[in-house]
């Protein structure tokens, strides 16, 4: 028995380390990076991260194959859902102004093992996403020159037919990534100005698309002749929403930039809301223009916007649109290359990644090693890999990160703040220096106390009652304590953490039954409804256990929603 005790203790210590949360410094604004980004800088970074290849490729694909002109509704719903997720990022970014995005938010609230998994998930997401955008950028530019670059490469360099590899090496995509890597290395301010330039050009071209597109609009393209506004029905709108949701994933570049923001408590929430609002408006208006210019069922998915102008007889406008797509994709590339090294920097500072990624260049104040290494890796991926299959897995990683950030917000709300102080009325009064005149007045006043009204006494009793009923963060609310005494033995916030995990499990099971219960699972009717009831009850009970606990009363920074 004695031989097993040390190993058992070691296992307990190991498990404790896996679940430990990150302890933040007293001065959250202290950083080795340079705080130089304003609210406008963060807003344009967010817009640049969202309005890219999705606008020029995704819109046409969803309109033709999934939703028709109702792609407008799909973008509206997806934008609202993204806004809810973005506000969770904004609250964390304001409360924890440190770089790392979803990784950092998970670490300070849920624990180390989950932060490690989310960190690697985000790194892979950025690498694959950046390489995919580079290939889309290359393909769009090549199409402007009638695919001469592709034909030259296949003729003079060669091609191959290997699973998961591209048919030919894309030197153009790799080259643009290496150039962007070099430019990003000059510092956050240089990156921000580059983003300003490309975003400004992109916005000007989008404005041109909207004005000229509405002039060429033909309302009959939404008429019954082509199936109406919602040709695929409600299911088409919701399927389109699921696809359009990933047009907004770039907003987390704002959360990754919080450690370089001048005033993150105000700048991060404002930049998040404004950038998402602008991106949603752009997607909705461009979708309307596209489906009004030409019939939705005749769109060319890969280059719908430029092709629409070509078909209306304005080839010069189509060329301008293609140039706009190049600028928009440049902003997405900058966004990926800007965020990825900072995630690695945050993990390296915490000892969960190679330490040399935590080194900051003393001149440019950026993690230069991470920028160079990941820029080269991203260029290599774009050079030889066919990323279309891998990109499908990005949606899983994105949803996982969003889910953990939203869950972490709930957990953090019910964790006790180490700086949390007891309420002033609960503290013992400080001894006051002796004042003879005041003492005399107090003696005279004793005679008057007998005639005080009952209202003052009742007010005193009420104050004492409230003080007794007050509970610290993470404890049961006073009104539920007599009925749920068995929950009082847990650490503050522990029940909430368990309830959040169970709520996530029950919601996944509930959605799985709703989507696959009668199709892939072939459940009998009675079993289908029974499982629905069980998982719905489990979800509601988990939600109830969260609600009956006290959350933090006052938070000085931005909050998604706060019910006192």
Tell me what you see in this structure:
This is Cationic amino acid transporter 4. The protein has 564 residues and is mostly helical. The chain has helices spanning 4-19, 39-50, 53-67, 71-95, 102-109, 112-144, 148-156, 171-184, 188-215, 233-244, 252-256, 264-293, 304-311, 315-349, 368-384, 388-391, 394-413, 436-448, 454-469, 494-516, 525-547. The model is unreliable at 1-5, 419-434 and 446-452 (pLDDT under 50). The longest helix is centred in the middle third of the chain and has 35 residues, at 315-349. It is globular, with a radius of gyration of 29 Å.
CATH level-two architecture of the largest domain: Up-down Bundle
Oligomer: single chain
Shape: globular
* Strand segment tally: 0
Strand content: under 5%
What's the average pLDDT?
Answer: 79
Number of helices: 21
Q: What are the salient characteristics of this protein?
A:
Cationic amino acid transporter 4; 21 helices; Amino acid/polyamine transporter I; 65% helix; mainly alpha; 0% strand; 2 domains; single chain; transmembrane; 564 residues; amino acid transmembrane transporter activity
Short description:
The chain is 65% helix and 0% strand. It has 564 residues and is mainly alpha-helical.
What's the layout of helices and strands?
Layout lengths: L3 H16 L19 H12 L2 H15 L3 H25 L6 H8 L2 H33 L3 H9 L14 H14 L3 H28 L17 H12 L7 H5 L7 H30 L10 H8 L3 H35 L18 H17 L3 H4 L2 H20 L22 H13 L5 H16 L24 H23 L8 H23 L17
GO molecular function, one term: amino acid transmembrane transporter activity
Main location: membrane
Protein name: Cationic amino acid transporter 4
């Amino acid at each position: 028995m004695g031989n097993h005790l040390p190993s058992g203790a070691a296992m307990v210590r190991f498990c404790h380390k896996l679940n430990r949360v990150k302890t933040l410094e007293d001065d959250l604004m202290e950083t080795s990076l340079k705080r130089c980004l304003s609210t406008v800088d963060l807003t344009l970074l967010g817009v640049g991260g969202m309005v890219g290849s999705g606008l020029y490729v995704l819109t046409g694909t969803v309109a033709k194959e999934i939703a028709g002109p109702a792609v407008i509704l799909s973008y509206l719903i997806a934008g609202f859902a993204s806004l809810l997720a973005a506000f969770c990022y904004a609250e964390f970014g304001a409360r924890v102004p440190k770089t790392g995005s979803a990784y950092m938010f998970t670490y300070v609230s849920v624990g180390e093992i989950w932060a490690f998994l989310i960190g690697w998930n985000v790194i892979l997401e950025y690498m694959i996403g950046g390489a995919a955008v580079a290939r889309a950028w290359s393909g769009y530019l090549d199409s402007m020159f009638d695919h001469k670059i592709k034909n030259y490469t296949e003729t003079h360099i060669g091609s191959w037919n290997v699973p998961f590899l591209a048919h030919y090496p894309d030197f153009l995509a790799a080259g643009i990534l290496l150039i962007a890597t070099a430019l990003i290395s000059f510092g956050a301010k240089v990156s921000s100005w580059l983003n300003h330039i490309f975003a400004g050009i992109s916005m000007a071209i989008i404005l041109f698309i909207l004005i000229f597109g509405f002039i060429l609009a033909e309302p009959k393209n939404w008429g019954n002749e082509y199936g109406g506004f919602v040709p695929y029905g409600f299911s088409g709108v919701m399927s389109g929403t699921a696809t359009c949701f990933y047009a907004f994933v770039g907003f987390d570049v704002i959360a990754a930039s919080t450690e370089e923001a001048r005033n993150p408590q105000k700048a991060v929430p404002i930049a998040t809301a404004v950038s998402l609002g602008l991106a949603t408006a752009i997607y909705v208006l461009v979708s309307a223009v596209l489906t009004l210019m030409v019939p939705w069922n005749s769109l060319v998915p890969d280059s719908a916007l430029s092709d629409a102008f070509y078909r209306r007889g304005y080839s010069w406008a189509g060329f301008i649109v293609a140039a706009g797509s190049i600028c928009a994709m440049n902003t997405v590339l900058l966004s990926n290359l800007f965020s990825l090294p900072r995630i690695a920097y945050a993990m390296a500072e915490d000892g969960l990644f190679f330490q040399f990624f935590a080194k900051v260049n003393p001149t440019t104040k950026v993690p230069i090693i991470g920028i160079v290494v990941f820029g080269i890796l991203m260029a290599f991926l774009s050079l030889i890999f066919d990323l279309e299959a891998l990109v499908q897995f990005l949606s899983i990683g994105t949803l996982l990160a969003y889910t953990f950030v939203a869950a972490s917000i709930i957990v953090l709300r019910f964790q006790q703040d180490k700086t949390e102080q007891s309420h002033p009325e609960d503290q013992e009064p400080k001894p006051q220096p002796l004042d003879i005149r005041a003492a005399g007045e107090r003696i005279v006043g004793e005679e008057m106390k007998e005639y005080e009204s009952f209202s003052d006494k009742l007010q005193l009793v009420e104050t004492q009652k409230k003080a007794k009923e007050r509970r610290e963060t993470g404890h049961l609310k006073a009104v539920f304590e007599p009925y749920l005494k068995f929950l009082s033995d847990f650490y503050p916030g522990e029940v909430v953490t368990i309830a959040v995990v169970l709520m996530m499990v029950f919601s996944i099971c509930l959605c799985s039954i709703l989507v696959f219960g009668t199709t892939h699972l072939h459940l009998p009717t009675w079993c289908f409804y029974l499982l629905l009831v069980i998982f719905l009850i489990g979800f509601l009970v988990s939600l109830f256990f969260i609600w009956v606990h006290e959350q933090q009363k006052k938070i000085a920074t931005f909050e998604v929603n706060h019910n006192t």
